[in-house]
Amino acid sequence: MSRQNTVLAIATPVFFLVLWELAALLGLIDTRFFPAPSSIARTGVNLVQDGVLLESLAVTLRTLMVGLIVGNVIGTVVGVSMGLIRPLRASLDPLLSGLYTVPKLAILPLLLLMLGLGEMPRVIVVAIGSFFIAWISMIEATMGIAHGYLETAESLELTRSQRLRLVIFPAVLPEYFVGLRIAVGNAVLLIVGVEFVMGGSGIGSMIWNSWQIFATERMYAGIVCVGLLGYVLTKLVKMIARVAVPWSPKSTSRRR
Amino acid sequence: MTTAHTNTMHTEVGSLEVTDSSARQIKATIRDVSKVYRGRTQVPALDNVDAHIYDGEFLTIVGPSGCGKSTLLRMINGLQRPSEGAVEISKSSTDRPLTSMVFQDYSVYPWMNVFDNVSLGLARSGLPKPEKHSRVRVWLDRLDLGKFESAYPSELSGGMLQRVAIARALVAEPEILLMDEPFAALDAQLRRRLQEELLEIVGDAGRTVVFVTHSLEEAILLGDRVLVMSARPGRIVDSVDIPFDRPRDPELRKSPEFRDLEERLWLMLKEHATATA
């Protein structure tokens, strides 16, 4: 059954790629907008060979990771603290909930005004986006911990630090990783958006420049590359989660 | 320091004035305890409950659901405080916890394996690690969990999970073991198995146990004495001594004396089930 699934999972996109290739070959679609997959691949290989692609990727990845980690750590700490401490929740929740709905890209001009054109505003946009996702998932997770778990901890007279270490952190860990996966996708979105606007040498600006000079193949290669970046990072988070949450019942894997 | 406290007090009683060795020593006293839950309306849960828990007895508490029997247990555990009155427990040892509780569910942590879950019972004890480990192993073996010590709860059945909870409560050798409908979520067969196991474990050692249940059969089979409570607000209706000797055979259930007792308790419950509702 699962083998059949694998075959289908691979065969479907391959089928569409072949269809696309044929359509381009036969002139059924305008290759100025839809260049054949083979020519996109060729351009991609060239870009990899002359180092442009990997260099852009490295630049983007660095900004993304710094922003993601900073935002995620702060968001997690704030979220868990707010989940546990009622006065903190009361004082910060309305403010953060209000700010949460502001599109993160909309504050980029403000950051540029304050911080200039360096690396900093890019990192901060990604960090803010990552912060909110971690914050929202951790405050919900912490407040959603089954009452029985906490009551048991109280009954066992665990110390405050034992309660955090042995009960609260492990209880929110599965949701933490769900949040992190969402945050990764969101961070890729934000960094590409920022690079569209700010230029520089990241993969986002490569895509943007390509359309301006009508280098369609290059553009496609960039898009595929960003897609892969998101995919690989998400996969990585899933793998880490599997190691870090060994107790999760196997049923979390999707039904076959 | 035993008077004038309106909250749960764990008082030290060095020597009790009981000299007659055949007299039952009082382990804990529930003194005029009332509990009112204050929400939009005030809900009285317990009404002037007065009771003793004797040293070494297995006390079962029965009552209609919502009568506050779990609340009472939580007060003994220190999880809740009486609105009025006090719970006084005499402490006889410094290195044993006063009470340990076995809950109905949600008490075995899914992120820890069986061994670590049971070890939690000793989280606050100052024992050296090897000593802790050997005590955990002893209880794992007594509850047939030895083979599962590195299994996660998601791999275990409900009956196994309650065994883990019981092992965790007993590993600390509490002065009073509290059990809040520990078998209520199990199917009938498992429930019987665990009752029988509990009879074996507790039957020997003269442990002080307070066991809340809504099953009369369970209350009679396990208990030395049954406290019958009324519907909300809970009051103590009666205290009934169970005349059967220990060690008890689970076959006891079938005896006419057992059935008679069950009938008697049932009538008592029925009479007070809707007294104030």
From TrEMBL, chain A:
It is a multi-pass membrane protein. CDD domains: TM_PBP2. Keywords: Cell membrane, Membrane, Transmembrane, Transmembrane helix, Transport. The keyword Transport applies. GO terms for cellular component: plasma membrane. Gene3D superfamilies: MetI-like. The keyword Nucleotidyltransferase does not apply. GO terms for biological process: transmembrane transport. Residues 53-241 form the ABC transmembrane type-1 domain. The chain crosses the membrane at residues 7-29, 64-85, 97-117, 123-143, 188-208, 220-241. It is found in: Cell membrane. Belongs to the binding-protein-dependent transport system permease family. This is ABC transporter permease. The lineage of its organism: Bacteria, Bacillati, Actinomycetota, Actinomycetes, Micrococcales.
Automatic annotation (TrEMBL), chain B:
CDD domains: ABC_NrtD_SsuB_transporters (cd03293). One of its GO terms (molecular function) is ATP hydrolysis activity. It comes from the Bacteria. Keywords: ATP-binding, Nucleotide-binding, Transport. The keyword Transport applies. PROSITE patterns: ABC_TRANSPORTER_1, ABC_TRANSPORTER_2. Gene3D superfamilies: P-loop containing nucleotide triphosphate hydrolases (3.40.50.300). InterPro entries: AAA+_ATPase, ABC_transporter-like_ATP-bd, ABC_transporter-like_CS, ABC_transporter_ATP-bind, P-loop_NTPase. Pfam families: ABC_tran. Residues 28-256 form the ABC transporter domain. This is ABC transporter ATP-binding protein. The lineage of its organism: Bacteria, Bacillati, Actinomycetota, Actinomycetes, Micrococcales.
